[in-house]
Specification:
196 residues; mainly alpha; 8 helices
């Protein structure tokens, strides 16, 4: 019977919940925005509490997009590795699209989004993936003062401080490193505990 319980795990839903929970628990978005304000002396960004909360919510959505891209990459790589281990089995082709669909549905449910919000998130996710597919060098490591070529960096810089976009891009690049590291660790940990 213990094997039955283990096989009944809903890995995509668990991963969606764990990513959102880790993002909140680690407070990556508020730390990113607050450190930018302090480091750059841009205290005017926090003058209006309601606008600042809205900014943090938008930045959190962008962070969730970046985490989702990384988690889906990791899940795809893990699935491919599992399929190559069991090379005699031919059922792996439909596995990743089903995982992705279930994962995105679980994120929408966990975030309590309307159908429109969920579709907007999926459209933005496709934009992220298309841009990253066109710029394979976006994954290379870079110096702390160098901005990454990544949609998260550009979109967050525009949201955070369009007047000083290059400074905001550099800060967003540093945040992206932490966000992707957290997404990778969370995904690897969760998928490492899945039965083969």
């Amino acid at each position: 019977m213990p094997g039955t319980k283990q096989a009944a795990r809903d890995v995509p839903a668990e991963l969606a919940a764990e990513l959102a929970s880790a993002l909140l628990r680690e407070r990556l978005v508020p730390r990113f925005a607050d450190s930018y304000v302090v480091e750059r002396g841009r205290y005017a960004l926090q003058t209006h509490p309601t606008r600042y909360r809205e900014l943090l919510a938008l930045l959190a959505r962008e962070a969730l997009l970046a985490m989702t891209v990384r988690a889906l990459e990791e899940a795809g790589a893990a699935g491919q590795a599992r399929r190559s281990k069991a090379h005699g089995k031919r059922r792996g082709g439909a596995e990743m699209p089903a995982f992705r669909r279930h994962f995105l549905t679980a994120i929408a449910r966990q975030q309590k989004w309307s159908a429109g919000d969920a579709l907007d998130f999926q459209a933005d996710l496709r934009v992220y993936e298309e841009i990253l597919a066109r710029h394979p060098g976006a994954r290379r490591t870079r110096k702390p003062f160098e901005a990454a070529e990544h949609p998260f960096v550009d979109r967050c810089a525009i949201l955070l401080d369009p007047s000083f976009i290059e400074l905001a891009r550099t800060a967003a690049s540093r945040a992206l490193i932490e966000i992707e590291r957290l997404a990778s660790a969370t995904t690897t940990k969760l998928l490492g505990n899945t039965p083969e």
